[in-house]
Structure formats: C-alpha cells, structure tokens
Amino acid sequence: MDRLGQICSAALQQYLAHGEARGLDIAAALDTAALDAERVRQPDARIPGVSFQTLLHTLIDHSRDPLFGLHTSEFVQPGSYNVMGYIAMSAGTLQEALSKVSLYEKLVGDMGTTDTRIDDNQAAIRWDCRYRQQPARQHLIDNVLGSWIRYARWLTGNDQLAPAEVWLEHPRPSPALVEEYQRVFLCEVRFAQPCSALIGPPGLLEQPIRQPDPLLLSTLEAHAIQQLHQLGVETSLAQRVKQCIQDAIGHSLPRKETIAERLGMNVRTL
Prior knowledge:
The protein has helices spanning 9-21, 26-32, 37-40, 49-63, 68-72, 83-90, 94-104, 136-156, 175-185, 214-230, 237-247, 256-262; strands at residues 6-8, 46-48, 112-118, 123-129, 165-167, 188-190, 197-200. By secondary structure, it is α+β, with helices and mostly antiparallel strands. The strands form two sheets. A five-stranded mixed sheet has the order 3-4-7-5-6. Strands 1-2 form a two-stranded antiparallel ribbon.
C-alpha cells in the first residue's frame, strides 16, 4: 500500500462541499487528481491518499483561502466519518464516543491517528497527521480538529462547547487569521506547539450525547468490525494493542494506561 494509504470517499465530501460553496470548478479539480466524479460520490468508495492529496492541493490553491481546511469543518455531518459518525451518535458521553475513534478511524481513512490522554487535571486529544507535505498537512489538521469541535457541539446540543485551548503545530499566522481560529474554536489557540491537540478539563468529556442508543450502538459496531475485516484490518484485542504501539513509533512508548484509555477499557481488563 502507498505510504498515504486510502481515504473513504465520504470523508471527501466536506472538501468538495466547501469548494462548491466558494464557486470552485470541482470537475476540473477532480480531473487534475485523476479521480472519477461518479466514484467519489459513492460513500463506501476508497480513494488513494496520493490522489486525495493532489485534489486537496488543487482546491486550496484555487480557493485562495488560507484557512480552507478550517472552513471545511463547517460542512461536517455524521456521514463524514463513515459508520464511525453514527457510532458516536449512539454513545452515552463524549468520552465513550471518543473511545471508539481509535477502534474504527481506519474506516474513515489513513490520514492520521488519534491519541487521547487523560489524567486528573487535563484531557488531551491529539491527532497525528500522516501527511507530511504542505499545504495539505496544515489544512488536514485544521479540518480534523475543527470538525471534532463542531461535531461534538452537534452531538451534545451545546453550541458553546469548547476546549480550554487548542494546540496547533503551524507557525502563528496574521492576527486576522488568529481571530478566525478563535471564532471557530471559541477558546485560546496556541501555535508552533509540539503537537496538534484539543486540551481541556477531563470533565468536558463527560458531556452526555443527546440521544444515546446502546442497542443501536452494538449493531453499528458489529457492522464496523465487518467493514474493517473487508479492508483487511485486524480487530482482535492483540492486533489493536499492536496497532497502538505501532502508531506511537517515533514518539514516546505508550504506557499501558494510555493504551487502555485508547481502547476504552480499564488497565486490569487490558
């Protein structure tokens, strides 16, 4: 598989919707990326990551929007995350929804990995982007963190939900662009940080989801596991632990507590 892997076509729709809203020639952008217009509209289609990167670079360039990725987060919806988005809708709390991300995020694609660390004083939800080439990397990070916040607000029905601060690895932009970041996140945004993450008190993750449905959650997870098998992704506990360790390569070796949190179980069970 190519280093950039694949992305579910459903996850592309935010970028296409924002491009259309800005009056961009979407057909031409798809042609540049050698993508079939009919195929990218099929929710379960898988798109090569290299083609997605080319498409993203084309849309960013033509939009002349330095915050194109951040603004695409306005178009997030449950389908943007494949079945994982509907699993989150059926969970009881934001923390339960978040615990499912590490299990099923490969259904959305191979764009990056999520790492959640919670202690008594702070919760840090970090996203490590797999794409290294700019400007795709910056805009992907902006999209993912912005989409998380917007989707969490929709899940909880709390339009003012916000972390204590947002960390971004990008250099600090102009004051006008900083204000726009703060408008979206409703909190302090810090730039040139060692990672990109949402930072806040642990209690923030205890926010209840509006309409939890444990029975539907079980059904959706069974479907998600079946989809992962079809993609050749192992879902046994041993494989999931191995995946957590592999994702940490290049960073510090994860503690067992960190892995347990990511897999949504206590340390003793792990």
